[in-house]
Structure formats: structure tokens, C-alpha cells
UniProtKB/TrEMBL annotation:
Gene name linked to the record: mutL
UniProt name for this protein: DNA mismatch repair protein MutL
Domain of life: Bacteria
Family to which the UniProt record says this protein belongs: Belongs to the DNA mismatch repair MutL/HexB family.
Signal peptide: none
Domain (DNA mismatch repair protein S5): residue spans on this chain: 198-318
Function: This protein is involved in the repair of mismatches in DNA. It is required for dam-dependent methyl-directed DNA mismatch repair. May act as a 'molecular matchmaker', a protein that promotes the formation of a stable complex between two or more DNA-binding proteins in an ATP-dependent manner without itself being part of a final effector complex.
Amino acid sequence: DILSNKIAAGEVVERPASVVKELVENSLDAGSTSIEVAIERGGLAGIRVSDNGHGMGADDAMLSLERYATSKLLTDADLFSIRTLGFRGEALPSMASVSRFELVSREQDAPSGVRIVVEGGRILDVTETGAAPGTVISVKNLFFNVPARRKFLKTENTEMGHIADILLSVSLGFPDVQFRLLHNGRVLRHLAGGDAFVRAVDVLGKEVENHLFPVEHRGAGIRVSGWVASPDISRSTTQRIYLYVNGRHVRDRSVYKALFEGYKGRMMTGRYPVAILFLDVDPDRVDVNVHPTKHEVRFADGRAVWAAVRDGVALALTGEDN
Ligand code: ADP
Ligand code: MG
């Protein structure tokens, strides 16, 4: 019902950037190769995500707005074998309950698409429509019916900064996919799909290009890859550490510590490395359902992960000595 969706929205949808993250993850789960994120006024006025993924038929589109109807957590076993970015089935119903929401979707080989208009959780209109294959979701006037939440939103520029950060973070895990970010009709970023190193430099900045050492290491069934930057371009925050577990952008203190350990003796105290690390772990050995925002994970073999990361990083940095 509308009330429980509104409550869930508080957990999943904190601010415009969380809407962008959930929508882009859905587009990626739908196999899209091109995703456009168009923002109006820092997302306070509008957020529109368009993709060329597999789309939804009318029935599936209706179902996608019902909480947990699309949950992939059917059995306990599923908890440990999730391969999609989404799995809880609550993002769309949540955001639709706290905004003016519109979904247009067409399956790749369908003759026409469907358009659903929702306002504050109430479905106002469902129509057949012409549309390009794929999905376009538009979220306007976020929190228009939750004034207490709206008050917590920051300035347009601050919210836009969060949106760009989240989009860039997610995009690192999917270098084959093309992304465009627009603000008030102007193109802010265009990330061409293709090479993982090009994407890394797009995200970290041209100035780090010649300071990156490739990581490639396997240990105890865990693959660690990515790039670590030489210590001389370290930072005073952990903000430039990008960590991915099976393509999912996450934060994990113990992995960060293993990363620092790999830098041991090279890094000034109070400084943090610039790094992009991809961990490929058997999906059965990692729990991603720790928190609704899915930013945290839990490993079945934390120590093995720790050792693999530390060794992979240390090995990559010995390249620096030569
Ligand atoms: P979850 O991602 O956890 O399954 P969501 O509420 O984010 O839940 O999305 C609900 C469902 O709607 C998805 O499982 C998917 O089937 C469908 N869906 C959402 N966005 C898209 C999209 N861009 N393209 C195709 N299907 C989508
Ligand atoms: Mg989702």
C-alpha cells in the first residue's frame, strides 16, 4: 500500500542521487548498452533515465510498481547467489510513492509500448503508446508529498555533485556501456563504451593516467583486478577508492584496510590511495542483502579476501620500484 511504500522510500530513496543509482542499476540489469541520465535542477525538479535495454511488457510494468512483486529473494538459497544489481523489488514502488512518476517501456520486438503515470503512489493512467525499444523512467518533484524530507535536500549543485559521483562510480563497473549525463539540457559527461582503462581515466581524471599500476591477482578462488595509483598522488580522504564486488559498487572497511596494507611503508600517514579494485568472488560466497541501499556486502571468507587484496596491491606496486 501507499503508506508502506512511503516508509520504505525513506530507506531506499534518500536524495536524487539514490534515485539515479536505482534507475541506472535497473537499466544495467535490463542489459542496456546505452544509458542517458537527464537531470533538471540537481534532480529536485526532475530525473529521467532512458535506456535501450530489454524493456517491459504492460503486465511486467504494472508488476514492477508493486512492492516485492519482483523480488528475487524467493528462497534462502537465493540470498547467496544474486547475479543482478537489483533484487529487492522495492526501488520503483518506493520512488513512485514520493514523486510524480512516469514509466514508458517497450520490449525490443513489441509493436508498441506502455505508459504508466503515478503520483504519490497512486496510479493515474495506463496507456498503450508508441516508444523506442527500452525504458524511460521520469521522477519529478521528488518528496513533493514528504515536506520533512524535502527540507533535508541540499542545493542543486550539491545534489548534482552526488549524482555525478554515483553515476561515475556505477559506470566503472560497466565499461562496455555508454553513459551520458545531462544537467538542465546541457551534456556534462559522455562516457563512451569500450575500454576499461579509458573508463578508469575518465572517472579518475586525465592527471592520474600515467600514475596507475595494473592489479591482476588470483588467490583462494578470488580474482582481484583494477588499478592502484602511485602513492605520490594519494589523497587525504578515502573518496577516490572505488571498490566493486562482482561489478557492484560497494564500500567495505576491511577491504580498504587490506588495500592500505598492500601500500604498507609507501604511504604517508593520514593519506589514502587512489585505487579502483574489482573483486570477482563466487556469488555463493558473498551476501549482498545486508542493507536496502546494497552498499555493503558480507563475505563468507573475509580473511581470504583480505589476503588476496593485500597481495594483489603489493604485487602491483612492486612494478613501481622497477
Ligand atoms: P529490483 O531491481 O530490486 O528488482 P526495482 O523496483 O528496482 O526492483 O525494479 C522492479 C522490476 O522492474 C525489476 O526487477 C525489473 O524486472 C523491472 N525493471 C525496472 N526497471 C527496468 C528497466 N529499466 N528495464 C527493464 N525492466 C526494468
Ligand atoms: Mg532495482
